């Protein structure tokens, strides 16, 4: 009987050791995956998308059930123009973590790029409906873009306004709102929105250029000239500066 108890104790100790070793191995693998993930994101921040993608892919092999890694892979493939592969990884991320509004918003941006407005709206709406979403203004802005492209300008304006209520200094959203007001010929509202975009980000060329276009439509050439000069000043080597120079010649 004593021998049986000793044998049983030995087996229990072996099993316990095995469990501890398994847990340790899993933790080690997750640390390796995290290191690969961090390295991949570092490359992506430097603009080297392909090197970043390589390391994120290795991270996913080590930790295939990690929703964040699949989300990051989705973003990397999106930015490389590999939209089908991007969709695969966003779907995987959301299957692993259903409460993932950031992933829903990112998923929607692929459909925006594919000009599939309704699936994009569905993704963005799911993101903003999640009370735990920390940055819903991004998804509201994206909803505005999708509705604008569908031709539903009123819904676009409503969503841009929701974004700006949450984040009043969101320069890009002010510019998008201005474009929608311009599309419905509400030029005064468009001018005010462009001015707010410039106020919050004066060194970005596109609101200066777009405001100049509106002034030209209204034959306010002096104000248009000033905005075109600002466009050139803030980004002298950029494509908008070239277009601004062409318009200045026409005004003269």
Q: What is the general shape? A: elongated
CATH topology of the domain at 1-98: Serine Threonine Protein Phosphatase 5, Tetratricopeptide repeat
Q: Can you tell me the CATH superfamily of the domain at 1-98?
A: Tetratricopeptide repeat domain
Judged by helices, strands and strand pairing, the structural class is mainly alpha
Q: What is the CATH architecture descriptor of the domain at 1-98?
A: Alpha Horseshoe
* Percentage beta strand: under 5%
Written as H for each helix and E for each strand, in order along the chain, the element string is: HHHHHHHHHHHHH
Spans of at least 5 consecutive residues with low confidence: 2-20
Amino- and carboxy-terminal Cα gap: 107 Å
Overall pLDDT, averaged? 90
| Strands, count | 0
Give the C-level CATH assignment of the domain at 1-98: Mainly Alpha
Q: Helix amount, in percent? A: over 70%
State the helix count. Answer: 13
Largest sheet: none
CA gyration radius, whole angstroms:
26 Å
Structure, explained:
The chain is 82% helix and 0% strand. The protein contains 13 helices and no strands. It has helices spanning 2-45, 49-62, 67-79, 83-96, 101-113, 117-129, 136-150, 153-166, 171-183, 187-200, 205-217, 221-234, 239-251.
């Amino acid at each position: 009987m004593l021998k049986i108890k000793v044998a049983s104790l030995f087996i229990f100790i072996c099993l316990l050791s095995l469990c501890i070793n398994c847990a340790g191995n899993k933790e080690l693998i997750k640390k390796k995956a995290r290191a690969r993930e961090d390295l991949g994101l570092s490359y992506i921040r430097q603009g080297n998308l392909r090197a970043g993608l390589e390391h994120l892919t290795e991270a996913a092999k080590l930790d295939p059930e990690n929703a964040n890694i699949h989300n990051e892979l989705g973003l990397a493939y999106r930015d490389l123009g590999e939209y089908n592969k991007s969709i695969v990884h966003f779907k995987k991320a959301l299957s692993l973590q259903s409460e993932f509004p950031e992933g829903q918003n990112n998923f929607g941006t692929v459909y925006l790029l594919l000009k599939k407005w309704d699936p994009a709206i569905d993704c963005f709406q799911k993101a903003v409906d999640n009370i735990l979403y920390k940055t819903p203004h991004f998804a509201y802005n994206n909803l505005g873009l999708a509705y604008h492209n569908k031709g539903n300008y009123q819904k676009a304006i409503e969503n841009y306004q929701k974004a700006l209520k949450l984040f009043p200094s969101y320069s890009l959203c002010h510019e998008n709102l201005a474009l929608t007001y311009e599309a419905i010929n509400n030029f005064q509202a468009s001018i005010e929105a462009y001015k707010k975009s410039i106020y919050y980000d004066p060194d970005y060329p596109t609101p200066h250029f777009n405001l100049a276009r509106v002034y030209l439509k209204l034959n306010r050439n002096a104000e248009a000239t000033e905005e075109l000069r600002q466009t050139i000043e803030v980004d002298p080597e950029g494509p908008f500066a070239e277009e601004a120079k062409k318009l200045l010649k026409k005004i003269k």
